[in-house]
Structures are given as C-alpha cells and as structure tokens.
Design a protein that fits this description.
Rossmann fold, 2 domains, globular
Length: 285
C-alpha cells in the first residue's frame, strides 16, 4: 500500500492483521520493513502498519541525498499518521526506528497513545561503545566473528559507494546481531538477501549522526506510556542503552529478554509477542 507526502514523494507500507493499529518503523537506516517478517505474530491482535522508510521497499528516495536526518523520518511518520486518519496511534520502533520513534513522540507527544522502543538507543557514547566491544569479544570464538567485525568496521567507516557494496558488508556482519548464530538464523537472513539497502541513508547516519546524536534531553517530553525492550545479548543496543532510555522517559517500563540479541522478534518471538501485546492491551495513562 502507498500514499503521497505533501512534498510529492510516495511512501509504501505493509498492512497485516486486524485490530487496533500499530505503526511500526524499521531500523538501519536504509532497511525496509521486510526484516520484520510478521513481527512475532502481533498481527493476531493488531493491524500492523509496517512503514518502508524513505528510499526503501518501493518508497521514493528524496531528491536530496542528505535528506535522511532523524527529523526527516519524523516528518514521514507524521505524514503516515495523517494518511491513516489517526488522532493518536500506537507506535513501535526497532533499532534506528526506535530513535525515530523517540524523536517523534517527543515532538508530537499528543499523537502517541503507546510507545514501544525495541532494541534501540538514545545516543552512542562511551558506555555504549564499551558494551559493544564487550559483546564482540564475547563472540570472538565463533568462526565467522573476525570477518563479521571487519565488515562492521568497513560499514561504519563508510567504505562503500553503492547499495550492492553495502549489502555485501551488512550480510557479513549480521551474525553479530544474534545471541546465537546457527542454521535458523542463517535461514532468516537468506530470506532478506533480495533486500536493497539504501547506501545514502546509512552512510549519512554513520558519518554524521551515529556518534553525535543525543536524544536524552528530549526524552522527558514523551508523555505516552512506554515499553523499552531489549535482548540481554544485544551487542549494540543492549541493556545499557535501554536503561538510559528508561531513566529519561517518565514511567517507562523496562523489559530485558533473555537469550536474545538484536532481533528479539526473531530470536525469542513468543516473549516479544507476549510482552508487547500485554503492554498494548493495558489502559493508557
């Protein structure tokens, strides 16, 4: 499905399930909603509106190759809300999508009923970097680890020019994102290999945003009930990140899912489903 923004761009989204609407923003940046799969069967209780962010999954790329800032994505969520005719919405953001969701909820607090922040972070500072290094060291014994770390370093250094070059790096590094990387996880990644990852979006984020953005001062502006969820083995957006977010959002609820990395909805789908469904079923404050 698709709609046209006020500035004439087409944005596409997947619609799945029945019930109250849950708007879902994927991460990357540069990834479409494809990697959400069925989002741990949350469609059983909710109508999932899984946005393909600008420049992914059939959504138009902006004319300006630098128009991939956090507030650009926030504007697209607001356009989607208006298109759906929602006064207030339930909003879920994963990874970079959680960054966007936090910024949206802080900018438009009256538009968010419930906020789910999955495997995300409010900034990447020294504590977060130390946790990431520790997570990589924990995986050092795996045969794929050295190559995955090398690919991650190349990606974060911006050593790619095309979508195809970026995709090659990303699929080498993705084993790092799981608590355990085996046949099931490899099979899941195989379903994503036709994905075109937007190199413009990720390069801008890595070079100018990742190590400089800091949402902590904006978090107290979020007034919706909020669930902050992460895997205990998430090497890049783990407990240290979730705890910092919870410290800034009044009344936020923290859930740590055991034996899971970054893709909680794939690694521990039942736990993810139950925690999010129960949270969304609770009365808004």
């Amino acid at each position: 499905m698709s709609f046209t923004t006020a500035d004439g761009r087409k944005l596409t989204y997947r619609k799945l399930g029945h019930g109250p609407v849950l708007v879902c923003h994927p991460g990357g940046p540069g990834f479409s909603s494809t990697y959400f799969s069925d989002l741990a069967a949350l469609w059983e209780q909710h109508t999932l509106i899984m946005l393909n962010p600008r420049g992914t999954g059939g959504s138009d790329r902006p004319k300006d190759p630098r128009a991939y800032g956090i507030d650009d994505y926030v504007a697209d969520i607001e356009s989607l809300r208006e298109h759906l005719g929602l006064e207030r919405m339930n909003l879920l953001g994963h990874s970079h999508g959680g960054v966007v969701a936090m910024a949206y909820a802080a900018t438009h607090p009256g538009r968010v009923r419930s906020l789910v922040l999955a495997s995300t972070l409010a900034r990447f500072g020294p504590e977060q970097e130390a946790a990431m290094q520790k997570g990589m060291e924990k995986r050092a014994g795996q045969e794929w680890c050295a190559d995955a770390i090398a690919a991650l370093q190349e990606e974060q250094a911006g050593n790619f020019e095309t979508d195809e070059e970026l995709s090659g790096l990303v699929f080498r590094e993705l084993p790092l994102y799981f608590a355990h990387y085996g046949a099931v996880e490899a099979g899941y990644l195989d379903t994503l290999r036709t994905e075109t990852i937007n190199a413009d979006a990720l390069k801008l984020f890595n070079q100018e945003i990742f190590t400089t953005f800091d949402l902590r001062s904006r978090l107290p502006s979020i007034t919706s009930q909020t669930l902050v969820l992460t895997g205990d083995e998430d090497f890049i957006c783990g407990p240290v990140c979730a705890e910092e977010i919870c410290a800034g959002i009044p009344g936020a609820r923290f859930v740590m899912v055991g034996d899971s990395g970054h893709q909680v909805f794939i690694e521990q789908p039942q736990s993810f489903h139950d925690e999010v469904a129960d949270f969304l079923a609770s009365p808004p404050r």
